[in-house]
Write a structure and sequence with these properties.
The complex is a heterodimer of chains A (418) and B (272). By secondary structure, chain A is mainly alpha-helical. Chain A is built from 16 helices and two strands. A two-stranded antiparallel ribbon of chain A has the order 1-2. In chain B, 36% of the residues lie in helices and 24% in strands. The chains are: A mainly alpha (418), B alpha/beta (272). At the A-B interface, helix 8, helix 11 and helix 12 of A face helix 2 and helix 4 of B.
């Protein structure tokens, strides 16, 4: 009786013709839909945001310097290197595999950079390309072992971890560490270069603007196709909120030096990978292979190529991260890529919401996750805690993240959202 | 056993013609000299006991396995099917027994998996519209195409799988046990769906263990036994005949009961 047809539309919307389904409308509807989603275990990036708020509150009460612009800019410099490595980890996790050797790959890349550039006098660009090419080669080897010999990636990359560590030591030779020249473009990029204020403020406008543009265009197309559309009020509120938030962050960071170019590069890669993973056929194939490999194969997807692309991307991102880490420290040393680099990269991806079980994850997981990890390590350093405690606390946070992932997964299964 | 030449659709175009198809796995011959015709606008049911070779035959047609010998004709032209995408390109779509959907993707993504529109900038609007069109043509009841497949019921998943197989406008659609995991209402829904697919002029080859389902929709029933042809029946063939052909034995519980019933009738007739 209350079913009054919309006078403007001649026939019901294609995707709204089933009366059994509830559809959120308006802002209160959006909020309650979000609440339902979270309750059923589809947490998205909620845990990481909540976690970040807790971590930042704790550390800033313990040491007010933590939230100062100077420290946050440092944090962003430190985030970028491991963050880029973590971006590669997201790729392999989405297809349901793992790369445990990203730390060694990055260490080897940094050693290669030092030897080729400083010791052998190659142009720096060529040395970087050589390091990334090595990453591509390493990824191809893992993919070949996986595709041709059926070697589990867990084992192949574990042996790669050792082999590459050996290769790194061999490349560096007896000296053990090579200092990269201060004042060179690469080292400045890793240590000091920041975006000019006007540029960072302009760039911060872009996400909101793009959101509006894409949103209105797709809304127009959906109306044409007789599909339901998001209300333009919603879109405006979201775009406005994002723009204000980004401008505030940029303003705050610009009180100190500003946004590091290296972090801008990292965010650029994240945005690019997010587009590739969600809006291209390749990204769809990655998610499909991670969800159900056999189904993907039967749909005519070249599953081997998908695995190859995932492993190659992971190792190349690791190599790039290694190059940037060398720039950040102005040295290629035997310690590069050892210690907690490996696990931090994997932990960041998982904390950010990439599932260890494959088929779920996004590029933004790397960004959010690495900020959490780096906040912890940065905050603990500020408190002058020993590295023993740092490792224990980071390990605990990782455990909590994986527990949340498992519980949410169980809840998703029981709510039919797996 | 009825004669194979008594086909109801003999006048219609033959979509698929198999002659002498064999498939060996090492020492085991899963299929031996299989002959099979499927016409346009016809539902052919493929029945047989466990291990009769039904699924193997479907996999050969879908390009999952290559046949060891024999000839295949599709639309009158001899073809060989090397891999799943070759089968798809020919116009053979398959709905596998184990559904083969990605539970972590939504309905639209599953329907278009591997055949997305504009690969470098996915056209979600066009894909969603097409998905709704396909589902509406099948009068399917899917609550939302933006929900992940994990949230759908078995019958709805089967519907998605069938809609998916229709995307490329195939000439022949293979269904491997389409109703095996479904409840009563859902089975009826899928059988309706099969009739609608046939009415669109497609050839349908359906595997089933359920004689009732087979009788409900099939135009012809092809029996396989131990990897060989064992007769072609019309849907009005008696259960006794079908079970006999499937098991290869004239003496089984079905025939014994039928025999007992016949005897009872005779003795009752004598008494009267």
């Amino acid at each position: 009786m209350s079913n009054i047809p919309n006078p403007g539309a001649g026939k019901p919307l294609l995707d709204r013709s089933d009366v059994r389904v509830k559809h959120a409308s308006g802002i209160s509807g959006t909020l309650s839909a979000f609440y339902d989603r979270v309750r059923s275990g589809d947490l998205g990036s909620l845990p990481v945001v909540v976690g970040l708020v807790i971590i930042w509150t704790v550390f800033s009460t313990l040491n007010p310097i933590f939230l100062s612009p100077t420290n946050l800019v440092n944090l962003l410099f430190d985030c970028s290197t491991v963050g880029i490595i973590s971006l590669g980890i997201v790729c392999v996790l989405i297809v349901g595999e793992i790369d445990l050797s990203v730390g060694s790959t990055s260490g080897f890349a940094s050693a290669l950079l030092g030897v080729l550039w400083v010791n052998n006098g190659w142009p720096v660009g060529l040395a970087i390309l050589a390091a990334i090419a090595c990453g591509i080669l390493i990824g191809s080897i893992y993919a070949a072992l996986f595709n041709k010999l059926g070697m589990p990636s867990f084992v192949s990359t574990l042996s790669g971890l050792l082999a590459l560590l050996g290769l790194q030591l061999f490349t560096l030779g007896k000296t053990g560490s090579i200092n990269l020249p201060y004042g060179s473009a690469l080292v400045s990029f890793g240590q000091t270069l920041v975006m000019p204020d006007w540029l960072s403020h302009t760039v911060a406008l872009l996400p909101g603007a793009i959101m509006l543009l894409v949103g209105f265009r797709s809304a127009a197309r959906r109306r044409e196709a007789n599909l339901s559309t998001q209300s333009s009020g919603n879109l405006l509120v979201w775009a406005g909120a994002i723009t204000v938030a980004l401008e505030l962050i940029v303003y705050y960071l610009n009180i100190d030096r500003g946004i590091p170019w290296m972090f801008a590069l990292f965010v650029g890669l994240v945005v690019f990978m997010n587009y590739a993973l969600t809006r291209t056929q390749w990204g769809r194939s990655m998610t499909a292979v991670g969800g159900n490999r056999e189904a993907a194969r039967r749909s005519g997807i070249n599953v081997r190529k998908v695995y190859l692309s995932a492993f190659v991307l992971c190792s190349s991102f690791a190599a790039l991260g290694g190059v940037l880490a060398a720039a950040r420290l102005a040295s290629s040393s035997q310690q590069a890529g050892t210690g907690d680099v490996n696990l931090n990269a994997i932990a960041a991806a998982v904390i950010g919401g990439t599932s260890l079980f494959g088929g779920r994850g996004s590029a933004y997981a790397a960004l959010l996750g690495i900020i959490v990890i780096q906040s912890i390590s940065n905050g603990l350093t500020l408190l002058d805690l020993s590295s023993s405690l740092r490792y224990m606390i980071t390990g605990g946070v990782l455990a909590v993240a994986v527990i949340i992932d498992s519980l949410a997964r169980r809840s998703r299964v029981s709510h039919g959202r797996a | 056993m009825t004669d194979a030449s008594r086909e109801p659709n003999a006048t219609q175009q033959v979509v698929l013609r198999l002659r002498g198809i064999s498939k060996n796995f090492g020492a085991v011959s899963a299929l031996t000299d299989i002959d099979l015709d499927v016409h346009a606008g016809e539902v052919v049911a493929l029945v047989g006991d466990n291990g009769a070779g039904k699924s193997t035959l479907v996999k050969v047609l879908a390009g999952v396995h290559a046949p060891s010998s024999g000839t295949m004709e599709f639309n009158g032209k001899p073809v060989s099917i090397a891999d799943p995408s070759a089968a798809l390109n020919l116009g053979i779509a398959t709905v596998f027994q184990d559904l083969a959907l990605c539970e972590n993707l939504d309905v639209v993504a599953n329907i278009f998996l591997g055949r997305e529109l504009s690969p470098l900038r996915l056209d979600e609007v066009a894909m969603e519209t097409k998905a709704w069109t396909l589902l509406n043509e099948l009068s399917a009841r899917i609550p939302s195409v933006r929900e992940v497949v994990a949230s759908l019921s078995g019958g709805q998943r089967q519907t998605v799988a069938i809609a998916r197989s229709l995307l490329l406008e195939p000439k022949l659609i293979l269904l491997d046990e389409p109703t095996a995991a479904l409840g009563v209402a859902q089975t009826a829904e899928v059988l309706d769906l099969i009739e609608r697919v046939r009415d669109r002029g497609l050839g349908v080859l359906m595997i089933s263990h359920n004689m009732e389902d087979v009788r409900a929709v099939a135009d012809r029933i092809v029996v396989l036994r131990l990897g060989r042809n064992n007769g072609v029946f019309t849907p009005d063939a008696s259960n006794h005949e079908l079970v006999g052909a499937i098991t290869g034995a004239a003496n089984n519980s079905v025939s014994r009961r039928a025999g007992r019933r016949a005897q009872q009738e005779i003795s009752q007739g004598e008494r009267q």
